[in-house]
Amino acid sequence: MLEDNFADDSAWTTNSSSQATINIDDGEIHLSLNDDHEYLLAMRSAPVFDDFYAEITASPSLCRGEDEYGFVLRAVDGKHYRFALSCDGRAKVDRLLGKGSLSRQAGWLQNPVVPAIAPSSVRLGVWAHGSQVHFFVNDVYLFSVNDTVLWKGTVGVFVHTSGDEDVSVNFSALQIWTLTP
Predict the structure, then answer these.
(1) CA geometry: angle at 147 spanning 105 and 90, to 5°?
(2) What confidence tens digit (pLDDT) does each residue in 125-170 have?
(3) Closest among 22, 21, 28, 23 to 5, alpha carbons compared
(4) In terms of Cα–Cα distance, which of 112, 107, 54 is closest to 84?
(5) Over 80: is that where the pLDDT of 37 sits?
(6) Are the beta carbons of 177 and 51 closer than 8 angstroms?
(7) How many CB atoms are closer than 10 A to CB 2?
(8) What is the pLDDT of residue 36?
(9) Residues in a beta bridge with 146
(10) First CA to last CA across the chain, in angstroms?
(11) Dist CA 142 CA 121 (whole Å)
(12) Which tens digit of pLDDT belongs to each residue from 51-68?
């Protein structure tokens, strides 16, 4: 359905400030943030997906402890799921339904397939069909969520600083497939 080699920066939200940078170059989207306890998201403007399987490669270069990075899915009108990996080797899924409305859908899970060092590289996978969403790292199943609130939306990527240190992650090789009935 979609293969994004990050050659067209008009398909993504990109911006820069003294604290945050999003840029697309050389087949990757790069997110860098040095603002204390903040999130930085880059979203695809289109298309909207409902049932799909998606994979993206994340390559943290500066990342430590509880800093996070990951994949955003079913994003619409400020609402979305965040599939997050921490830099100490854990994974979780949160759902954001608006400002101040964050709920944990799958709690922190420690797993050896989640890298606990940077630099590293990891392949994130998401299978979404109706209310069922399954999450994978390097083709290893981690957990599932069942939710009837968000059924469709665009995709994106994010980074989060847990302290006052910089976090920097490159994302590449986004592929999205249609699920066949």
Answers:
(1) 25
(2) 999 999 999 999 999 999 999 988 999 999 999 999 988 889 999 9
(3) 28
(4) 107
(5) no
(6) no
(7) 16
(8) 78
(9) 132
(10) 15
(11) 17
(12) 999 999 999 999 999 999
What predicted TM-score, i.e. pTM, was given to this entire model?
Answer: 0.94
Please state the domain extents for the chain. Answer: 2-178
pLDDT over 90 at 102, yes or no: no
**Gyration radius (Cα) of the chain, Å:** 15
- CB 25 within 8 Å of CB 133: no
Distant-in-sequence contacts of 140-148, Cβ < 8 A, 24+ apart:
140/111, 140/113, 142/91, 142/106, 142/109, 142/111, 142/113, 143/91, 143/93, 143/106, 143/109, 144/106, 145/81, 145/93, 145/95, 145/105, 145/106, 147/95, 147/105
Q: Quick one: 2-178 is in which CATH superfamily? A: Exo-inulinase; domain 1 (2.60.120.560)
